[in-house]
Amino acid sequence: MKPDMNPQMREALGLMREGRLHEASGRLRQGVGLTSFATPGEPDTGVVRRPVVGTVNVPDGVPSQRVGAPQVPTLPQPPDLPNAIRSSLPAGLPGRGLRSAPAVGAEAAAAASAPGGDVRHLRHDDRRGSRSFDLYIPTGYTGAPVPLVVMLHGGRQDAMDFAVGTRMNELAEQHTLLVAYPEQSTAANHGRYWNWFLPGHQQRDVGEPAMLAGITRQVMSENNIDPTRVYIGGLSAGGAMAAVMAATYPELYAAVGVHSGLAYGSAADVASAFTAMRTGGSPRPTSEVPLIVFHGDRDNTVHATNADVLIAARLAASTAGDTFGGPAAVTTRADSGYSVSVYTDTEGRVVAEQWTVHGGAHAWFGGSRVGSYTDPRGPDASSEMVRFFLEHRAGPRS
Question: Which of 377, 383, 388, 376 is nearest to 337 (CA)?
Fold first, then answer.
């Protein structure tokens, strides 16, 4: 496939090679003909109208340790948020018909198990700490190798709530795949936010990345999982942590999905997390793991600029002489409610997709009303994410 780039795309690639991802993301948007994310009457600065914080929270303690486990150094914890800021955090998030209260009780349990498979409540323990996780095993699983999808919930959610809201268990039945739902500990973060914004949780073999990789490997060892079809995705703080996992464990995951999240290394503490949520931050280089991104262009919690930065960072990983040869073309299609840009490499392989939902806020699109932080209206993010996942298998990457 021959390169097919307009001038804006060529300029964007040059900016990526120089590490100027914010400027590159602007050129990308011009190249694919997307309009500004700015609120009408508001400058396109990437700064939201009011300081709503939906992906950052501060731990009240440290990750719990298994009794008898070897002691490891305590990870540094950020200072507590001022009471004035904490009191300004909304009980729910704005959006198109969102339900902000967590799904609890019999209704959620029934919805999670409704597809008919087995919902197992499990735990992973290692020297770094412990985390609970739910595992959905579909009725069609007979022991033959199947794909695995790891799903990371957003803040103020738990594993069951996220399973219900995303309807991912229904897709597990349709495609015969296992789905694991790791659950953040309230000891590590009292709002159940993954600590994507702390350096101690942005590295391989330490902190939460190591525990999430451990959960992934535990499921693989206890079930017959195709190692070339292991995927990870998440919402908001979970989406940001999914991006961390793709950067730190690229050999483990064949593709990554980030819904309303942030790029790897876009923040290094609480203060820069606030900034990143508004502006996209200053991300670190990521891996070549194929990426699909969903974001609403009226997200007042994590500004939609972050979707551009995620895509720019991923494409930058394909400009350094890697096996894919760099991105060569982009095609964009528009629906009445959303736009989709598909980025392919020089051999025609899809390396990234960006779904922009017009008028969408901070919610999982196409989700169930039973779950929290969902927008039942389309597009169906879960179906499209699984479709993208299953189109990719892990292979050699430079």
Answer: 377
C-alpha–C-alpha distance, residues 310 and 257, integer Å: 11
Mean pLDDT, residues 373-395 = 95
Asked whether the beta carbons of 254 and 230 are under 8 A apart, the reply is yes
Query: Peptide bond before 7: cis, by omega within 30 degrees of 0?
Result: no
Angle between helices 21-32 and 7-17 (to 10 degrees): 160
Does 68 score more than 90 pLDDT? no
**Contact of 240 with 258, CB cutoff 8 Å:** yes
The answer to whether residues 40 and 97 touch, using CB atoms and an 8 Å cutoff, is no
DSSP character string of 95-106 = SSS---SPP-HH
Query: Which of these ranges, 190-194, 318-322, 341-345, has the smallest mean pLDDT?
Result: 318-322
Tell how far CA 90 is from the center of its chain.
22
234 in Cβ contact with 153 (< 8 Å):
yes
What's the token pair of residue 326? 């760099």
Q: How far is CA 307 from CA 63, 85, 278, 344, 385, in A?
A: 30, 26, 12, 17, 15
What tokens were used for 63? Answer: 């990750």
DSSP secondary structure, 67-86, as one string: TTPPP-PPPP-PPPPPHHHH
Q: How confident is the model at residue 25 (pLDDT cuts 50, 70, 90)?
A: low
